[in-house]
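Session log. Operator J.P. requested a structure for one protein chain; no other inputs attached. Running the standard single-chain path with token output.
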Amino acid sequence: MKSSIKITALIPISFLLFDFFPSISLEAFGPSGSFNHIRILKESFRAFTEETGYEIRADCQEMIVQGNLKSDSEFMNSEGYHCDNNNIFGCGLELRDLKSKSEKTTFFSDSMISIGHATHIIQDFYAHSNWIENHPNQIEIAPLEEPWMLLSMSHIQTGYYNLAPILHHEEEAVECLNLSFEEMQNFFPFATHICLNKDSEKTFRGGGSVESNPNITLHQWAGLHAVEHTKKFLVDAFNSDHKNLNLCLISKKLSFSCNNSIFKLRNE
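Structure written below.
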């Protein structure tokens, strides 16, 4: 009992120490947009609590965030971690592999890092694909964990970050920049990352409006999809009795929402 009390007492201290580290520069959902990876996770953690009645401990939240952010710094050129180069199937397989690793890994911290990597994949999909253009009226979660289902949706794509496939097709790639909202709902063979990405309101597409709701930018619509899917990923892990995530859970009634309140103060 005494040892568990000591460990519990260290949790807020360890959490606060994380916040002294500088924020990592993000490529997707970057700091220049109203949504970034940290904000998406914050909102997802709160939504998880509302649905399940449990909070994820603040130190676990921070480990998940660190895993998410490290996807940009450590796996910058891995298309599977960012749903780039129209490799949606590979992106989905990477997500499934990380989910499995998070359940089976021996070390608790590695599990949280894997969950963080997995949430990064989920979030980048909505910023880098034309999924939200195809769902302008209400939030629809993509079957990214079952990527074979996406293969049957031939109109869904992500842009080429690696420009090798568009060599000698530069004129067609430029045409992508002139596509209307409705035209973006279709497959365009030489779509680049620049043409499709909605990482912030400052990107070519991100500042545009959702056709059915001109008060919401495409960047914001991608962010809202990312929040909902991230929450679902965590709730699904909870419902499947994820052993490592379970170690992070505290009843909302016992915690008085302390962990989410503390984590809300974290710098973005």
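Operator note: The first strand starts at residue 54 and ends at 56.
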